[in-house]
Amino acid sequence: MTQRDRRAVAAWLFLCAALVFAIVLVGGITRLTRSGLSIVEWQPLVGALPPLSQAHWAELFARYRETPEFRLVNYDMTLQGFKGIFWWEYIHRLLARGVGFVFLLPYLWFLLKRRLDKPLAWKLAGIFLLGGLQGAVGWIMVQSGLIEDPKVNPVRLAAHLGIALAIFSAELWLALELVSPRKNPVEGLPRALPFVIFAMALSGGMVAGLRAGYAYNTFPLMNGQLVPPEVLMLEPWWRNFLYNMATVQLVHRAFFWLLSIVIPIVWWRARGTVAGHALLAAFILQAALGISTLLLGVPVGLGAVHQGGAVLLLAAAIWTAHSAPAHPPYRAIHVPA
After folding, report:
1. 285-301 burial by CB neighbour count: b if 16+ within 10 A, else e?
2. Which of 226, 70, 213, 235 is nearest to 154 (CA)?
């Protein structure tokens, strides 16, 4: 690849990563406004068109009225109220379709013009397959709330979020590699940090799926206790980490305390870089957003920004890892005879 090709592909990947960030942000609003179950069918092609007539709106609303969410939660919703939740889910799906085309069409063009080397082409193909998997998992997640209980399965929600973050991370890392290739692999804490933040974001997805953010709205203690006694009340024990509000929120907080130690260490080692300062600033912002969201009872706007802040913190960690200096090679120690 020429330097010009590398810059062009990197710019395209940065754009794709930005669009994934937008999808995650809109996805947070969709979840917080309980809009995710408003569209009860998965129509990848036909569903790209919005309702264009009053009759079409009435048809979609009639389908929604058959769902458990309408019968058990939104039984008094009018057509006008349905339109409000419909548009958020529609925008979320439209963005997903859009980012698919923004990724696929330039990828095919770069391939035809032979502007990708073979290893990079295969990596990008893998990202595209992840995008297809993301769409399938998203629909499986929605289906989980259309059967009996009008709530999506928290594990499926976390998986949906996790795939989006994996796509974002891969695109960002490849773009950084194209702009400034590393000569040595990343080692130590900078290498581990993005994975820890990724795990924290997944635990945040579990918190969202269980609506655990509406419980234990105190900080730093959870209703006056460091560890609530109900964290292991489910049997078998492992179910607590999937379906117990107290346990899931405790795990999310544990990741926060871990990062409050690790990130200052990484920043200190990378304090001479812009990426290191961006990492520390992103963490302070995300911590403030998370604590405020919790104390205020998860308002929609603040909760959505908090979800977006997790992506920005992950981006800062990836940037810092890519910018981290390589450790000098160990020198052999000669012992005199």
Report:
1. bbbebbeebbeeebeee
2. 213
For the record, the structure tokens of 258 come out as 């871990």
DSSP letter at 239? G
d(CA 150, CA 154): 12
Q: What is the pLDDT of residue 283?
A: 97
Q: How many CB atoms lie within 10 A of CB 335?
A: 5
Summarize pLDDT for 303-325 with one digit per residue, the tens. Answer: 999 999 999 999 999 999 998 76
Query: How far is the C-alpha of 134 from the C-alpha of 219, rounded, in Å?
Result: 34
Q: Taking a C-beta distance cutoff of 8 angstroms, is the pair 154, 213 a contact?
A: no
d(CA 46, CA 54): 18
Exposure on the CB side of residue 158, measured as CA atoms within 13 A = 22
Q: What is the pTM of this model?
A: 0.90
CA distances from 220 to 17, 233, 253, 254, 335 (A): 33, 22, 9, 11, 54
What the block records as the tokens of 171 is 């695109």
Concatenated DSSP letters of 66-102: TSHHHHHT-TT--HHHHHHHHHHHHHHHHHHHHHHHH
Instruction: Find out whether 114 and 130 touch, Cβ atoms under 8 Å.
Output: no
Can you read off the two tokens belonging to residue 196?
Answer: 């820890």
If you average pLDDT over every residue of the chain, what do you get?
88
DSSP 279-336: HHHHHHHHHHHHHHHHHTT--HHHHHHHHHHHHHHHHHHHHHHHHSPPPPPPPPPPPP
Rounded Cα distance between 31 and 69, Å, is 13
